[in-house]
Amino acid sequence: MATVQSLLTGSGGGGAQAEEGVEEGGGARGSGPGVELRLVQSQLRVEEEEGLGSSITALVLRQPLKHRRAWIYLVLTGLLIFTTAFLLGYVVFRGSCAYCGDDGELVPVDDPPGHYTEDSLLHMGELRHMLKKYLSDETLEDTIRRVSMTAHPPGSLEGNDLAREILHTFKKMRMDHTWTDSHYATLQFPSRTQRNSLWIVDENGDELEEIPLNPTDYCAYSPNGMATGGVMYVNYARPEDFDTLRSLGVTTKGAIAIARVGGGVSFAEKVQQAQKAGMVGVLIYPDPSDVPQDPRRLGLSSDAAISEHVHLGSGDPFTPGFPSFNHTQFPPMQSSGLPLIPAQPISANVASTILRQLEGVACPRGWQGRLQIYVYVECVLGPSLKGAPGHRLRMGVYNVMRPVLLNNIFASIEGRIEPDQYIIMGAQRDSWGPGAVKSGVGTALLLELARTFDTMVQNGFHPKRSLLFVSWDAGDFGNVGATEWLEGYLSMLHLKAVAYFSLDQAIMGDDELSAYASPLLMDLIEGAIKQVEHPKHPGQSILAHMESQGGNWRSHIVKPLYLNSGAYSFTAFGGVPAVELRFDEAVRTYPFVNTQWDSAGRLQERLQGQLSSVGRTLGELIGLMVLRLSHHAVLPLDPTCYSSTMLHFSSQLNQHSAELQARGLSPQWVFSARGDYSRAAKTLKEAIENSNIDDERMTRLYNTRIMRVEYYFLSQYVSAVETPFRHILHGRGNHTLSALAEHLGLLRSQPLLFDEARFRKQLALFTWTLQGAANALSGDVWNIDNAI
């Protein structure tokens, strides 16, 4: 069988540099001294047993016949008692593990029957025990501190030193393979010769007053140039915020937006919404109501700004859809997600200087942030500035583009049965600042999981599928390293990648767990949170603690994948099930991400000394899910996970049936496709539950269909270059379910804006993608029931 390395560093990766992990103790598995020792011990044990048997036989033959019978009866009775006791103990204790009981205590429960492989030497209960045994608290905290001692952006000396250290660490672990995958990407950095600026100018454009900015604060991929206009406060710059401004009759065209950090939208989404509203620039600041700003209580300094990229996409925006390998001849194009108006992060102090000068319409209810309360009583939208008529704000952005060599670092443990299927764990390595949360936590978890699984292999663990550990470069610029790799191997990943686990920003608190995940992984997540103790509530599982707070665990924990997540591109672009687990605070947020204050000391102080225990909890959660995926004969993924989503959309269409029929539109084919998909998913799930796991051919067929569920939802009717996030449920664009549902809502809210031709196209794109997913999931094309 092909190895993981040959699959991932073949002819398609012209820029990759493969390095075998056999140096410095990295010998091939199966020929090491540990295996030889076991063989010698086994041989000695057999010889001893044979010698003992010969002695007993001779003794029996020397006895009289009646004594021989007594000996025989005695031996048989002893064997019967021993066998009965052994079988009883095996049934009772086989695969025991820590599951959660009704009272919230951890109790032993057997594994679901039929999910382990006969060729595995260890059962899941033993593997879980081994995982907990080898996970190290001290190693995690030490790595976080070492990684976050200084800033290490891509292409810097510090970044290259860290890359070499990680590669060296992987090699020392006796991995089956280690290698690097290199790309050239265009990144943007602050200019060293011309600083970004803010000025108050008069009606003639003459500069009156400069508002100083920190030269290190910037928005990557902002266009350069100057923008001048009035200032409009737009709250979080969400779509609903601009809808509110339109309903108030406020004119946003030609103004510079000033927006708060947060609101559930990224910087790139804020800039896009402002651009659509006709605004000429965007300033983004951290409001104390969203980002704590009392340094004495571990808050952000009022002089600090938060930097973030503003590319509405991921990967190198100047090679959209193409991998940035060295030999690639790039066409002259750029991503449609690049903004057309300049953007700049500012501090709370700079924002207060601007906000106190605004005049105009009063803010809507709920828009007043804490900063407005500090500055003045009434919240004002703008756009006018106090002083002489015609005073305006001028912003200048002068960042520079630079090509940078990126290095993704890989290590793998090869699967014993299906080495061409792999479970991927990855974390970004770079950061603008020290990056304790942004890169330190993820890198520490990645190395600790790699070390733990490597140790488990040396002690008898044989994964059925391959494990892949990856350190990504240029994550702060929109997951550039990971996306370029995805683009390079897009045609094969849906056939080979079982799942992706993003370790980015995994620890920002110690109270509340969030899972930004593909629904296909829900059963895995549930199984893990049932078995792992909550870091703040010993003896109680995470699930039990969640349920004690009231509410459904899925609605409490599970959140949709978002654009800046390290997992997003894998599902929305690559069609691979992905998840990003994160511990956060239930009330407070960690305010230092993407700042110069994101240090290990502040993170440890924020967690009140619990950094190691929270890191261990996350390592155990991810490790358990990886174990199940690498150990079970049939992948524990739920193909029916999207049936309820489709049913909900069908009910939305039903509610608008009268309006649709009046326009000659019929949702009939959507209903048909939805029914076909639900039936196919249910049939596949039932077939798996009733399958014989000893039938390797059938299990392989089932696994292939389950692995490709997310891939089936990538629309084949839009270009991966022009619309990279083709997933109709998690993606972005006119082809998605969210765009279709939003357009459908106009039938009642704003019927004059409803575009029938556009809606017909959206309906067709969605329907045929869904029907294609149903056909693929059903398996055999000659068994598809699509009667006319």
UniProtKB/TrEMBL annotation:
It is a single-pass type II membrane protein. Keywords: Cell membrane, Disulfide bond, Glycoprotein, Membrane, Receptor, Signal-anchor, Transmembrane, Transmembrane helix. SUPFAM superfamilies: PA domain, Transferrin receptor-like dimerisation domain, Zn-dependent exopeptidases. Residues 230-293 form the PA domain. One of its GO terms (cellular component) is plasma membrane. CDD domains: M28_TfR, PA_TfR. Signal peptide: none annotated. Pfam families: PA (PF02225), Peptidase_M28 (PF04389). Residues 1-34 are annotated as: Disordered. Belongs to the peptidase M28 family. M28B subfamily. This is Transferrin receptor protein 2.
